[in-house]
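Course exercise 7: structure representation. Students receive a sequence record and must write out the corresponding structure in token form. The form below is the worked example handed out in class, using Na(+)/H(+) antiporter NhaA (442 residues). Read each field label carefully; the graders check that inputs and outputs are placed in the correct fields and that the protein name is recorded exactly as given.

STUDENT ID: A-19
EXERCISE PROTEIN: Na(+)/H(+) antiporter NhaA
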Amino acid sequence: MANTPPKPSPSLFGRGSYSEAVRIGDILRKETVGGLLLVAAAAIAVIWANSPASDAYFAIRDFTIGYEPWHLELSLGTWASDGLLAIFFFLVGLELKREFVAGDLSQFSKAVIPVAAAVGGVVVPAVIYVAINLNDPEGIRGWAIPTATDIAFAVAVLAIIGSHLPSALRIFLLTLAVVDDLIAISIIAVFYTNEISVLPLVLFLLPVAVYAFVAHRYRRFFGLHASAAWLILLPLGVIAWGLLHASGVHATIAGVVLGFAVPVLRSTASGGPAAGPGLAEIFEHRFRPISAGFAVPVFAFFAAGVAIGGWDGFTSSLVDPVTIGIIVALVLGKPIGIVATTWGMARFTRARLDASLAWIDLVGIGLLAGIGFTVSLLVAELSFGLGDVQNDHAKVGILLASVLAAVLASALLISRNRRYRRIEQEERRDANNDGIPDVYQR
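STUDENT ANSWER:
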């Protein structure tokens, strides 16, 4: 009997499909602009909150508007964190569903690594934070602050310093950020809901069910006119958001639920219908600019404003275990958790890192994942509350950790970017002129 040749080891972070690379590239370009706006909004907030006109900033942030009988008399800062951020999480849910239904991650072998890495990038920072704040019963409430990655901020940095990095790394970062943001929002739902009103929570399921029914049948009712469907879906989404807010569960959860309720069409290449773009693609195209260009920057403006209190206040925040825990957890815990989990999964599955990549590239991506800005600021407010000293110190830690992680990741990935720039010309060759680079057809 002839010897059977050994089965080749699976490739870790191999090149995905060309269509997926193009789609991810389009998402990254949009998120890059949003990331720059986010950083600008946060910088304005910090400067204003520590200027002689700081009273005006906090007066605007704390100005209340709304209707109390519906539990909606909220400050502008709360409207931004509970309302506008729901748009961001709607896209998180939409993107995650697209990845697992129609993207390269629809294959379990490709999905398990970034999902496991995201879990490692959540658990290790949380453990580090708890270890540092173990003797502080008040500070330990912020254990979930360093668990999330800011998609827009991290992608903006990656676009500036890593324009020639392989698409597999970009897809890995985007998937990683989406998954651990979903984990973070799940943590918010479970651990940061103090009191639940059952009736609004049950009623919340009704508009969600109608929303899902209309979303899946909109072609039958409206043909290809998604705009007509949205006239029904938008009010249903607002009602669902209001009911979940009234139930006591953080209202941004509604965004994720509604994102998952939108149907995703599989591509014709994978056996799906050839009926044009689905509702998920249409919504993503329309709402990503609103999220990246308005919702997230406005939230950052209201959330990042922290009165440091001069040099003395700054130095006092640096010795607070809350600040130290956040910085260490994000800057060290994130890359350790991500890289160690990825390495462990590679050993377990006997997968080899793709020949075009090196483990040092994953360290750079792990450092980028330490930019925990948007969701971290949200969790800090939920952990300590506005006006609490530890909340202010937590914000200082988040800002410092995000900047430090960005600087360290940039220093590492810039050198790697030079290497990949030299081989990019070969990857762009299209000898048969079919519009798809040859490297995707080998």
